[in-house]
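Annotated sample (chain length 139).
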Amino acid sequence: MKKRKEFDMYDIDPKQTTIHSETKKSKLERMSAGEWCGGSDAEQSAAFWRAKDLAWEFNQTRPSDKEKCRQILTELLGELGEGSAAVAPFNVDYGFNIKIGPHSFINHGAYLMDCAPITFGAHSFVGPQFKALYRSAPS
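Output written by the structure step:
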C-alpha cells in the first residue's frame, strides 16, 4: 500500500499558487476569490487583525446598546441588511467576506471563517454555536 504524502507548505502544486502575471491579484484578493494563496502577507494580516479587534469590541459591547452593536457590525461586515442583528459572542476571520441579508439574525457563539464569501439571504435565522468553516489548503 502506497503511503500518502503529508502536506508540506513548501511543496505545493505551482498551478494552484502562481500569481498569473495578467491578473496580479494580491493574496487577500485570491483568498477572497476562494483561490489558494499560500500563506499571508502584510495586507492579509492587517485585515485579519482589524476584524479580530472589531469582533472583540462587538463582544464587549452591552447587548442593550443596539445602536453601537449595529455600528460595529456595519464596520466589520461586507454587508449588514436592514433589521439584521447578531448576538455575542460573534467571531470572524476577516468580516468583509460576510453578507447578511435584511431581517436576519445570527444567534450567540457563531464563528464565520470567511476566507471565502459567506452569504445569508433575507430572513435567515442562524442557530446558536453555528460554524461556517473553510478549507483553505490544497488537496
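Annotation: Residues 1-22 have pLDDT under 50 and may be disordered.
Annotation: The longest strand covers residues 90-92.
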